[in-house]
Write a structure and sequence with these properties.
With about 100 residues, the protein is of the alpha+beta class. About 45% of the residues lie in helices and about 15% in strands. Strands 2-1-3-4 form a 4-stranded mixed β-sheet. The chain starts with a helix and ends in a 6-residue tail after the last helix. The mean pLDDT is about 95. Belongs to the glutaredoxin family. CC-type subfamily. It is found in: Cytoplasm. InterPro entries: GlrX-like_pln_2 (IPR011905), Glutaredoxin (IPR002109), Glutaredoxin_subgr (IPR014025), Thioredoxin-like_sf (IPR036249).
Length: about 100
Amino acid sequence: MDMITSMVAEKPVVIFSKSTCCLSHSMTSLIRSFGANPTIHELDEMANGQEIESALLQMGCQPSVPAVFIGQRFIGGSKKIMSLHVRNELVPLLKNAGAIWI
């Protein structure tokens, strides 16, 4: 948990992903489409990726990726992000976190 906290500290948007996960890629593309520049952690390309994935699962990320943090808070996976987007709540969240300025 502390590892995750330090990885998302001081970054407006962080996405924990796997390079082979199409949903992770889609969430990254969606967030970038608003002008945000998320920090991406590809768990399958990191030496401690399995350890991070276990920590994400313990936090309630089901499945473990994509796991999207906005403003240092765990927001959710692809279903939650799409739900926020459909309800026009994603952009205000990104603005409040300082990820976009429009």
